[in-house]
Amino acid sequence: MRAVRFSGVGRPLTVEDVEALRPGPGEVLLDVAAAGVCGTELHFLDGLLTPARTPITLGHEVAGVVAALGEGVDGVAVGDRVAVHYLHACHRCRWCTAGDDHLCDAPLGFLAFATDGGFAEQVAVPASSVVPVPEGVDLPTAATLCCSGTTALHAVAVAEVRSGADAVVYGVGGVGLALVQVLREAGARVVAVGRSRAKLELARELGAGVTVDASCTDVAAAVREATDGRGADVVFELVGTKETGVAALAALGKRGTLVYVGYSADRVEVDPLAMVVPEQRIVTSVGNRRAELVAALDLAARGRLVTSVTTHPLADAARVLEDLRAGRVVGRAVLVP
Ligand SMILES: [Zn+2]
Ligand SMILES: [Zn+2]
């Protein structure tokens, strides 16, 4: 079976023939239909994140068709079209029982972080981590929802966005374009900030009322202008550099919430006084809950969450990642084995 393997920082990704997989007890084996290419993969290549072991097969946004069942699996059948929740939660710990399975203390697996991911012809995952893909949603789209679309849903839930809120989406990659739509569904007014004209145009088509080109505009001033001087109620920071952090804080209004979703190697300085007086807060949002993946697939089935997907062969993984790094991917790229 072919798989895209990561062996460590500074070493090229390789497409290798690896041993065929068998589903263990409680697992299902999937024929991968598509696996999304995410900024997280760049963080691995750069050493900002380190997987639990190497070599490891990358790819944590996976959808496919069930090819075989391990011992004791029920409720899933061979031939089912499924999306995979990337963090295979235990469903027993205090976080899981509270519904926050994305914070699980004892995960059974974690695609591309601890267990082999979906940049491969097949992947084996716990049956409890797969979610049926509704009719009308194609598998490449379902794959992208496993991370970008559902991460957007989670971030909006964490931020407690109210109808009528002024929201800024800082960064219009895969997560950002999904956020624009989820915020539109929540009744927010959306300002999208980016550096690519094509991505900003897409953001506008998907529901952003205002777009700001950060390469030639003072972002905070543009946000204040778009909000009658008030500043934003919520800013979603999807880039996470020093520069974007400063601008995001400056764009925030009274009682505003800055939500960190993206990150980089940069540090950001915070001036407590400047935040205390307008009673602002900073929160963070990581990944998503399994239930949010179900909700994202449902939104997609109803045409309320669309993803612009481009498909590429597994062998092109390294090139697609470089395109992503250079900002050349509009929407989401997926690898198809
Ligand atoms: Zn991802
Ligand atoms: Zn758990």
Task: Offer a quick outline of the entry.
It comes from Geodermatophilus pulveris. The chain is α/β, with parallel strands linked by helices and 337 residues long. The chain is built from 10 helices and 18 strands.
Task: Please explain how this structure is put together.
The protein has 337 residues and is an alpha/beta fold. The protein contains 10 helices and 18 strands. It has helices at 39-46, 94-97, 139-159, 174-185, 197-206, 219-226, 242-251, 272-276, 290-301, 317-325, and strands spanning 2-6, 14-17, 27-36, 56-57, 62-69, 81-84, 87-88, 109-110, 122-126, 130-132, 166-170, 189-194, 210-213, 232-237, 252-260, 281-284, 309-313, 332-336. Strands 3, 5, 6, 9, 10, 17 and 18 form a 7-stranded mixed sheet that branches. A 6-stranded parallel sheet has the order 13-12-11-14-15-16, sandwiched between helices. The longest helix has 21 residues, at 139-159. The radius of gyration is 20 Å and the shape is globular. The chain starts with a strand and ends with a strand. The site of one zinc ion has 9 residues, from helix 2.
